[in-house]
Amino acid sequence: MKEEEIVPWDVKRILLGQTPAAFLLEILVRTVVVYLCLLVIVRLLGKRMSGQITILEMGVMLSLGAIVSVPVLAHNRGIVVGVLLLVAIMALHHGLSWWSMRSPKVEMLSQGRATVLARDGVMLLDELAGAALSREQLFAVLRGKGVEQLGQVRRVYLEGCGLFSVLRAPKPQPGLAVLRPVDHDLLEHDRSRIVCVTCGNTSEQASRGEACSRCGRREWTAAVIGRKKTDGGARKEQSQ
């Protein structure tokens, strides 16, 4: 459209552009057909496409979104071309999945690998930085898993698909609280041990002024054993 052909505040142009009004009905038909085809393709791609997706599956989903927009909105493009592209993406995805099952290198490149974020109650700060995660984000994940302090954790993994896996320690040790500071009064502390506020490394009370052997920081707090027992719980134990 040339500049002299533009009429300011032309409602028809603003709402419909240069598209004839009759094309709106065709867009509706195109949308229904392409949407149904997309549902079939996603169903054939497998259950993973509707769950937590990997890097490979993310690429497929973005490609699907780019493909379906053209046959729906472009009046000079046919639907068949878009459907063929959807089928091609499905074939490519299945081909890469088949190749990944037979090649660990391809699997690592396409699916990603798990990252250890915490080991034996201590956070791995370099791995957290590499994953662009803060300590508070990790604490939020642990709270969602019912963890109250890091000593309850044996391993925390960030899986290749973005999920967090938390392996609990068979015998919890004193550790750094993951609850918000306003809720620390709910926890029972071990005054004989201190824990690094930065990484969660535990040490003896006598070394409070020393630098942490893991991260080099000097900020310490009392280690947490677990949740305080309520009066009701104490009375129940005494009755047993």
Describe this structure in words.
α2 (23-45) runs antiparallel to α3. The chain has helices at residues 11-16, 23-45, 55-73, 79-102, 104-111, 125-130, 135-144, 231-239, and strands at 115-119, 122-123, 153-158, 164-168, 187-196, 202-204, 220-227. It has a four-stranded antiparallel sheet with strand order 2-1-3-4. A three-stranded antiparallel sheet has the order 6-5-7, with no helix packed on it. The chain is of the alpha+beta class and 240 residues long. Residues 231-240 have low confidence and may be disordered. The protein has two domains: 3-109, no CATH class; 115-239, bsu07140 like domains (CRO Repressor). The termini are far apart.
User: How many alpha or pi helices?
Assistant: 8
Low-confidence stretches: 231-240
Shape: elongated
Tally of individual domains: 2
Report the average pLDDT across residues: 81
The total of beta strands comes to: 7
CATH superfamily of the largest domain: bsu07140 like domains
Order of SSEs:
HHHHHEEHHEEEEEH
The percent range for strand residues is: 15-25%
| Assigned CATH architecture of the largest domain | 2-Layer Sandwich
CATH topology of the largest domain: CRO Repressor
Helix content: 40-55%
Q: How large is the radius of gyration?
A: 28 Å
Strand order of the largest sheet: 2-1-3-4
* CATH class designation of the largest domain: Alpha Beta
- End-to-end Cα distance, whole Å, is 86 Å
Largest sheet: 4 strands, antiparallel
Keywords: Cell membrane, Membrane, Transmembrane, Transmembrane helix
Main location: membrane
Protein name: Membrane protein
Family: Belongs to the UPF0702 family.
